[in-house]
Design brief:
Number of domains: 2
Helix content: over 70%
Shape: extended
Distance between the termini: 81 Å
Structural class: mainly alpha
Largest sheet: 3 strands, antiparallel
Radius of gyration: 30 Å
């Protein structure tokens, strides 16, 4: 996608100038004609509107989810204050600090000026605005409740970001332990053990079996250090290639759900994401069937996605959501019961969001319990490695005393 400037006339002969994002000039001309304009001149803007320091090769900053959340919050505040949509976007483009995101906001402004809806404008930037975001905006525009939808989107994004941050923060300490412990073992294998091996070789002492194994492993690591790297790259390449196929993704996602400790947690993550997305879309006024199709596509697990297909068919046939979900055995009985109560009381969207909140709390608790066991396990594993090295070296030193003078 590139940014093009255009000069056109409308049906009354008035002159119109603006910019528009598109793959080529022909696409821009077609869009202008669809809007009822007569294109006079279309040309690509110099450097697509970015200065040299902001070009992709010189400026690698991308639009983060936090920036999208801040944009949503600010847009909602301006609209709630009575400012028109195009003026709100123009104001936000002036205060945005991220050049890449500023370009996107300018494109949204140009698209709105050209007669497109906000949802259609957002849809041209799929890497920044998710299908949930776009369809929520579309439902808000259709129902005349854009400000309300923006508030719900903010809540949705804040909850998702909070869960992500909690998981990331919880994993930092175990990751630090693993890196520090691995670095200590590598330093000993590369710098400490080789010097000891030279000393013992010169002494000609008979070394214990554990020390011989340690020296062999150290020598192998020094000589063939590149072999594990090549093996890791090869395995990673083959895994990535396999995951690009539908069968590979299905097998991998199925394996993840069957893991002893992480499997149930990953299932709860998928259910929470699905429930929050569906509840948010339904609160935004989107029809149940359309909201369900979008929510299923955001689950992030092809195995559960496959299991959700009968649910869509069940909703089409008027059976509701709870009963088809129960038949798939993908959702726990408690989740199915809560959704059934929501359908019976006519508060399915509210019950979906409550279910998402419940599973978010369960996920946080499960992760804390898992890390409570993981941290000492990592420390114990590193202690075993380091202890083996130290004891093997000590045994070799003690064996020197047994040498005849």
């Amino acid at each position: 996608m590139a940014l093009y400037s255009y000069h056109a006339t409308d049906s009354s002969g008035g002159s119109i100038n603006g910019t528009m994002d598109g793959p080529d000039e022909g696409a821009i001309v077609s869009r202008l004609q669809d809007l009822g304009y007569l294109p006079i001149k279309v040309e690509r803007t110099a450097d697509s509107g970015l200065s040299k320091s902001e070009k992709p090769f010189f400026f690698f900053r991308k639009t983060s989810s936090r920036e999208v959340a801040a944009f949503t919050h600010e847009l909602g505040s301006l609209l709630d204050a009575g400012m028109p949509l195009d003026k709100s976007l123009s104001t936000l483009s002036e205060v945005e600090e991220n050049p890449a995101f500023r370009k996107i906001i300018i494109d949204l402004y140009s698209s709105i000026q050209s007669g497109h809806t906000l949802a259609d404008s957002l849809e041209s930037h799929p890497t920044v605005f998710s299908p949930v975001y776009v369809n929520s905006i579309r439902a808000g525009e259709a129902g005349g409740a854009l400000e309300i939808v923006l508030e719900r989107l903010i809540k949705f994004m804040e909850d998702a970001e909070k869960l992500k941050e909690d998981i990331t923060s919880a994993l930092m300490y175990p990751l630090l332990l693993t890196v520090a412990g691995s670095a200590a073992v590598i330093v000993m294998l590369v710098f400490v053990i080789p010097r000891f091996s030279l000393i013992f070789a010169d002494a000609g002492a008979a070394m214990p079996l554990s020390t011989q194994v340690l020296f062999l492993f150290s020598g192998f690591f020094l000589t063939y250090w590149w072999a594990p790297l090549i093996a890791a790259v090869f395995i990673g390449f083959q895994t990535r290639r396999r995951l690009r196929t539908e069968a590979g993704r299905l097998a991998f996602d199925k394996l993840k759900l069957k893991l002893p400790v992480l499997g149930p947690v990953l299932r709860k993550v998928v259910i929470s994401r699905f429930s929050r997305t569906l509840g948010t879309l339904m609160q935004g006024g989107l029809p149940v069937l359309e909201a369900l199709r979008i929510s299923v596509n955001t689950m992030g697990n092809s195995m559960m996605f496959k299991e959700m297909r009968p649910v869509i068919e069940g909703v089409k046939s008027g059976r509701g959501i709870a009963l088809p979900l129960k038949e798939t055995n993908s959702f726990p009985p408690l989740a199915v019961h809560m959704l059934k109560v929501g359908e019976e009381t006519g508060r399915l969207d509210e019950m979906l969001l409550r279910l998402a909140d419940k599973y978010d709390r369960d996920i946080s608790t499960s992760i804390k319990r898992f890390l409570t066991l993981l941290e000492p396990a990592i420390i114990l594993l590193m202690a075993v490695f380091v202890g083996f090295i130290v004891i093997s070296l000590l045994l070799a030193i003690f064996s020197l005393n047994d040498m005849p003078l």
